[in-house]
Design a protein that fits this description.
By secondary structure, the chain is mainly α.
């Protein structure tokens, strides 16, 4: 069949829906003619209908490649994509059709295609994709020329053509253009908002303004909006309002783009040109676009009013009359006597009316916060400066300069004149604002102005004023003279002439100055409204005559009177009159002088001379409140803030201001140092005070305040030394004595916290001695002295037993002698101490409480809150010592409540009251702690107390939260960590508890109870486990130091001393342990004598057991046995520990008898112990082992056999009883009984390695086995056993040394050195490894070997100099070396 026939068959099959037949026919065609176009199309259509889509698409594409200009395959592929809903490829195909129709100039088909593209994009595409589709039908599109040939649409018959929408868009593109613009604007705004939100939340994100600038730069740089806006502006069908709105959008867009472009970008100049051209065009054609006019106004470069375009300003007011800037412009024009109305007859209106006051009112009535633009800030700052409101003027100028810098950066241009204008206003305001406070800043601005404008009159005048304040009179005169030469006929020149004359007066050129003053005065008097200036000139003329001295002062008086006649409110004239009445009248008219000073000070608080004379007069009359008023007003007038309570920072600022004017005033340096000290800035205080002392070494106040500052930073010794030196110069000065007592007290507290009990005791006694000396020299300040005594005695009471009994007793007696014989408040609660014999801590506490009570009676109406607090806290401490009662608790609460009522702002008093309520009234306690937090919410202590309250009442969640808050406020608060540990302990979290307690113990100010609890937990855990001795030591060493610190802080805590003794016993410090136990027993004896408490008696019995054990260990068996008998005598039948303690006592007695060789009695005692031992396998085993050892010691065959039977019985009952195995093996070795040794160690040796190591940590079984093999002469067997032992535990240095020693016995030094290689340099290997290495190298006999032997022997001696074998080996090595040399 021919190709045509097959193609016809394929077409017929397709028409009949026989797609398989069509496929076969098309494939047969392609077999003959592979490039047949129609066969590809038919086969593609068949494959599509048979759902072989991939093949169908490939065939369509192959057909298109064969005949690119034939539409059939393209149409098929288009339908294929349409049916497959493949939008992207469908659009690609449509675009290809559009290109073909464009090439073929088929406008209708092109319009249909593009219209379909738009429809698809509206239904399936994004907004941006729709925009791209719409742009294809707008002018500028490559399709637009062909599409424009389409006829205009018939609106009455839209269905007449298939391209109605395209025809409408082509002949009226404005709606499409508006739609595109709205879509692009919305998309860019959404992109901006999304990106801003994402970047703002990034870690380390920059400021929002920077992010906005970055986004503006990114978005505007790729935006199509400018072109679209221009299309709308140029469109013939755009209405005027649309054009204006679009123009405003374009200006705003260009502004954003320009401001976001960095100065380094080369496009910024072009963007600036485009933006300014747009703005200038809007302004030129007077289009009312407020943003454009505002921009044009802001970048006006002007220094003076004359530089501004007044026509522009009038137009602005005309177009935007209701805007804030229009109000500013209107006021500014009126202020310069110009009518804002554009009137042709302007000169006539100006002549008729003066608008200056109206303009001033307009500008001054504008709220300052609304003056946030450059122009408004510049205008308002100038006007406020003219009316001498320098503070607001400076603020506005500073704000304006900040905005100007931002505008210059954004605009990419410098506005030099505007900057100079701002700087002139700013510097002028700073010069006159609280001089000389801001003169340094003003001078830097003035120098910058003069570098740009050397003859700027305002800058020259300001420079002259600053130089006057610095008393640089000649330089100031030169500056004023330059003004006169620059503008000779202006008012500024007249003012400069007056200031120049004043400089001449100060330079003692009196005659010249008088001539110039009179010339200025003549000119001023000729002008109206110059009364103030005339008064000032007259006063200065009078001051010049006053400076001449002698009879000229009468002439000065005349000028002062004339000045006041011209202006009765001119304050300096009153000051000068006051001085005249004081110094020139005979006798001095102090009354008139005082009135003049008072009047001058009322008119101007900056009149420092008048203020000083007023303050001195009030001080002489003891009117201290009036002195304070004068001081406050003076400092406020000078621009500072008067020092008052809790405002040390403001006082520091005030003194710094004063020191700029008087840098060598030692009093100011002194007060500055004092203020620094009160503010807690002690380092700065010391520097300032040392400088004050350098200026006036004779002033004792500087060293006094230096000592106080040193006391503040904890340098108590230096502070005490300085204060002691001052007492030698001023022995009765109350402030020095009080501070010295306080320094001793704080030093004692610091030493007590550090555990230096003896030092603390001496410091507290010194504090009491100084306080008593203070009381002996003062009668009106007794409360201060008694407060120090109360605190010193309170802290002294924490030391229960004193090192210097006589000194403490003497101090207590001196204080008690000054106290009343009886206290009405405390007579039913507390009895005074006898102080007849040795005193203890409770005696000092009683004296402290009685001292606080006496201090309360000295205060008027019992109104001393501190005394009430001290009584309550003292009684609380006394109740803890075992004197608690309901009546005492109620009285303590009453005292603390009285303290709170009298001083409710004290957080410490509220905390103390809350602590008193913890057990009795939890609600009130919670209220007190929360009240303390309200007063001082940054203090961790109330949070800790609150946490303990919740923990005590089992509210764990609240307790945990409170402790966490305390940790946040103060991570070094140990009590918070201990509280968390208590919570962990309550929840059974042992690891958490240990971790928290360990952290608390490592803090700078640990809690003693935390140290004890951690030590107890560790010691208990060690006793519970079976650990090697090295690990036991590693665990015990840290708690050794903790307990040492605990006992240093609480030397009378018997439980702490006993635990410390147990730790020392395990570490081998048995003598120190005995001392600790004896101290604890003395404390328990004293307590028992007072209370006869059975708990104390039981503790005493246990302490005796510990002491007896220690006596036995230190070779004192007789004393040990006596002490054990004491334990037996103290045992009670109902005691739960009776069996254990009785067994231990009998064991101890038996061991003591054995040591004394009274073996029969020892056997009886041990048998008794074995009989009374409770059901405790370990304790019973110990009894049996000790009994067996004692039986063996008799050397009696029968007893020896009994000992073996006892041990074999133990091993048979517990094959892993290591102590019994060791003893049994030792007996076997001694008797050379191989069977006994095998019976003892076989069970242990057969265990798996890990179990064996866990059971026999110290390798005792291996050691005994090796010794047994050596005793049998089986060296090889011993080495084999040692090798196995080391293989199981290769890091064990002892086993390593054992194997090395055995290899040496075999005379195998090479093997020994190989084994020890790498271990000789390790510190943990010790001297034994070094000795073995030295001997091995010595046996080798080589030169290098001898050098290594000498080196190892020397290091062994250095590591352990007390070990004899090290010296012996060293001697052998040296002898060998010398022998080799000889």
């Amino acid at each position: 069949m021919s190709t045509k026939a097959l193609l016809k068959t394929a077409r017929e099959k397709l028409n009949k829906k026989d797609f398989e037949g069509a496929r076969d026919a098309a494939e047969r065609v392609l077999d003959f003619e592979s490039s047949n176009y129609m066969a590809h199309v038919f086969l593609a259509l068949s494959a599509f209908e048979l759902q072989d889509y991939e093949k169908s698409e490939k065939l369509y594409k192959a057909a298109i490649e064969l005949e690119p200009n034939q539409p059939l395959a393209r149409q098929g592929l288009l339908k294929f994509y349409e049916k497959r809903n493949d939008t992207d490829k469908l659009l690609e195909s449509l675009k290809e059709f559009a290109e073909i129709y464009l090439k073929n100039e088929d406008a209708t088909k092109l319009a249909e295609t593009l219209q379909r593209v738009v429809e698809i994009r509206r239904e399936h595409g994004t907004k941006i994709q729709l925009v791209q589709a719409l742009i294809d039908v707008l002018p500028g599109s490559p399709y637009y020329p062909l599409l424009s040939t389409l006829p205009e649409p018939d609106a009455t018959n839209p269905t007449a053509t298939t391209t109605f929408w395209i025809q409408t868009a082509i002949h009226d593109s404005f709606p499409i253009l508006e739609e595109v613009v709205s879509i692009v604007e919305a998309e860019e705004q959404a992109r901006f908002a999304k990106e801003f939100s994402a970047r703002r939340t990034r870690l380390g994100a920059p400021k929002p303004t920077i992010i906005r600038r970055e986004l503006d730069r990114e978005i505007c740089g790729s935006s199509m909006l400018p072109a679209l806006y221009n299309e709308i502006l140029n469109h013939p069908k755009a209405f005027e309002d649309v054009r204006r709105a679009t123009e405003a959008k374009l200006i705003e867009f260009k502004q954003r783009q320009l401001y976001a472009t960095p100065s380094t970008d080369t496009t910024k100049a072009e963007l600036k040109h485009e933006f300014t051209a747009l703005v200038d065009g809007v302004v030129f054609i007077k289009r009312p676009n407020e943003n454009a006019w505002n921009q044009c106004l802001q970048w006006q470069d002007w220094e003076k009013f004359e530089d501004l375009d007044q026509t522009f300003l009038r137009n602005y007011v005309q177009f935007f009359p209701d805007s804030m800037l229009a109000n500013v412009i209107k006021g500014y024009l009126l202020y310069h006597n110009i009518d804002p109305a554009d009137d042709q007859d302007e000169e006539k209106k100006v002549a008729e009316q003066d608008f200056t006051e109206v303009g001033l009112d307009v500008l001054l009535n504008i709220p300052l916060e609304s003056l946030d633009s450059i122009f408004s800030s510049r205008v308002a700052s100038e006007v406020y400066g003219d009316v001498e409101d320098y503070e607001n003027s400076a603020t506005l100028a500073r704000t304006g300069l900040k905005h100007l810098a931002e505008l210059e950066t954004s605009l990419g241009a410098k506005l030099t004149k505007t900057r100079v204008g701002f700087q002139v206003v700013f510097s002028t305001s700073l010069v006159h604002l609280c001089p000389p406070k801001n003169h340094d800043q003003a001078m830097s601005l003035i120098l910058e102005i003069l570098s740009v404008s050397p003859y700027n009159v305002s800058a020259l005048m300001s420079r002259g004023f600053i130089l006057q304040a610095r008393k640089s009179w000649q330089d100031a005169k030169d500056s004023f003279d330059k003004v006169v030469l620059t503008v000779p006929s202006s008012y500024q020149a007249l003012k400069a002439r007056e200031e120049s004359a004043w400089c001449e007066s100060r330079l003692e050129e009196y005659e010249t100055a008088i001539v110039h003053f009179q010339s200025v005065l003549q000119t001023l008097e000729a002008e109206e409204g110059r009364e103030f200036e005339v008064a000032r000139c007259l006063w200065r003329l009078g001051q010049t005559y006053w400076s001449c001295g002698g009879g000229q002062r009468e002439q000065a008086y005349t000028y002062f009177i004339q000045a006041l006649k011209k202006d009765s409110s001119y304050a300096p004239a009153f000051t000068s009159l006051g001085l005249y009445y004081l110094e020139c009248t005979q006798p001095a008219d102090t009354a008139r002088a005082s009135k003049c000073f008072q009047k001058a000070f009322e008119l101007d608080p900056r009149e420092a001379v008048a203020a000083r004379h007023l303050a001195e007069g009030f001080a002489d009359e003891r009117e201290w409140d009036l002195v304070e008023v004068v001081v406050r007003r003076t400092i406020e007038g000078e621009g500072g803030v008067a020092p008052r309570k809790e405002s040390e920072g403001e006082a520091i600022h005030a003194f710094q201001i004063a020191l700029r004017a008087e840098p060598n005033d030692h009093v100011l340096w002194l007060r500055l140092g004092e203020a620094y000290g009160k503010a807690g800035r002690y380092a700065a205080a010391i520097k300032a005070l040392e400088h004050s002392h350098e200026l006036d070494p004779a002033d004792w106040l500087a060293p006094y305040f230096i000592a106080e500052a040193q006391q503040g930073v904890g340098l108590y010794r230096e502070a005490i030394q300085g204060l002691t030196t001052l007492t030698e110069q001023r022995p009765t000065e109350p402030g020095i004595l009080s501070s010295l007592a306080s320094a001793y007290l704080e030093q004692g507290v610091s030493e007590l916290e550090a555990g230096f009990i003896s030092r603390a005791e001496g410091s507290f006694l010194s504090a009491v001695a100084e306080a008593l000396k203070f009381l002996s020299t003062q009668s009106g300040l007794r409360l201060i002295g008694w407060k120090t005594i109360t605190n010193a005695m309170f802290y002294l009471s924490e030391v229960s037993s004193f090192h210097d009994q006589e000194a403490v007793l003497a101090a207590l007696r001196k204080v008690k002698a000054l106290l009343p014989a009886e206290s009405t408040r405390l007579k039913d609660i507390l009895t005074p101490p006898d102080l007849e014999s040795a005193v203890i801590g409770s005696d000092a506490l009683k004296v402290s409480i009685l001292s606080a009570d006496y201090r309360l009676s000295l205060s008027p109406s019992n109104d001393d809150a501190s005394a009430w607090h001290d009584i309550g806290m003292g009684l609380h401490a006394w109740s803890i010592q075992g004197n608690a009662s309901d009546a005492l608790a109620a009285f303590i609460t009453k005292c603390l409540a009285e303290a709170v009522q009298r001083e409710p702002a004290s957080a410490g008093y509220w905390t103390a009251l809350g602590s008193a309520y913890i057990t009795s009234n939890p609600r009130s306690a919670q209220h007190c702690f929360i009240k303390a937090l309200d007063i001082d919410n940054k203090n961790a202590e109330p949070w800790c107390d609150l946490g303990l309250l919740y923990l005590y009442h089992e509210d764990i969640d609240l307790a945990r939260e409170a402790f966490q808050r305390a940790q946040v406020l103060d991570p070094d608060c140990a009590l918070a960590w201990v509280g968390q540990a208590l919570i962990a302990a309550g929840e059974g979290d042992v690891k958490g508890e240990m971790a928290l307690l360990s952290h608390a113990a490592g803090l700078d100010r640990p809690v003693s109870e935390g140290d004890y609890t951690l030590s107890l937990r560790v010691f208990t855990e060690i006793n519970r486990q079976i650990l090697p001795r090295t690990k036991v030591v590693d665990h015990l060493l840290p708690i050794f130091f903790l307990l040492n610190r605990f006992c240093g802080r609480q030397p009378d805590n018997a439980a702490g001393l006993h635990l410390f003794a147990l730790v020392c016993e395990r570490l081998g410090h048995k003598d120190f342990a005995k001392e600790l136990v004896n101290r604890g027993m003395r404390i328990l004896e004293r307590v028992y004598e007072e209370k006869e408490d059975p708990v104390v008696e039981r503790q005493f019995m246990i302490a005796n057991a510990t002491l007896a054990r220690l006596l036995l260990a230190t070779g004192e068996p007789e004393d040990s046995m006596i002490t054990f008998e004491t334990v037996l005598g103290l045992l009670q039948e109902e005691d739960a520990l009776k069996g254990v303690l009785e067994t231990q006592a009998k064991l101890g007695i038996g061991m003591g008898q054995a040591v004394l060789r009274d073996l029969q009695e020892a056997i009886l005692s041990l048998q008794y112990a074995q009989g009374v031992a409770p059901e405790d396998e370990k304790l019973r085993a110990h009894c049996s082992i000790l009994l067996a050892q004692t039986l063996w010691s008799t050397r009696n065959a029968e007893y020896c056999e009994m000992a073996k039977e006892e041990l074999l019985k133990l091993v048979s009952e517990d094959a892993r009883n290591l102590p019994a195995i060791n003893v049994l093996a030792g007996l076997g070795i001694l008797t050379k009984d191989e069977g006994l040794v095998d019976a003892a160690v076989s069970e242990i040796i057969s265990l798996p390695p890990d179990e064996r190591v866990a059971l026999d940590h110290d390798g005792n079984v291996d050691y005994l086995h090796i010794q047994y093999l050596l005793s049998q002469g089986n060296l090889a067997g011993a080495i084999s056993t040692a090798q196995k032992s080391l293989f199981f535990e290769p890091s064990n240095v002892v086993k390593l040394n054992t194997l090395a020693a055995l290899l040496l016995k075999m005379r195998y030094p090479e093997g020994t050195l190989a084994l020890l290689s790498g271990h000789e340099g390790e510190l943990k290997s010790g001297s034994t490894t070094l000795i073995l290495g030295a001997v091995s190298n010595l046996l080798l006999g080589t030169n290098e070997g001898l050098k290594s032997a000498l080196r190892n022997a020397q290091r062994a001696v250095m590591v352990c100099p007390g070990k004899a074998i090290s010296w012996q080996v060293l001697a052998c090595v040296r002898k060998s070396i010398e022998g080799q040399k000889s």
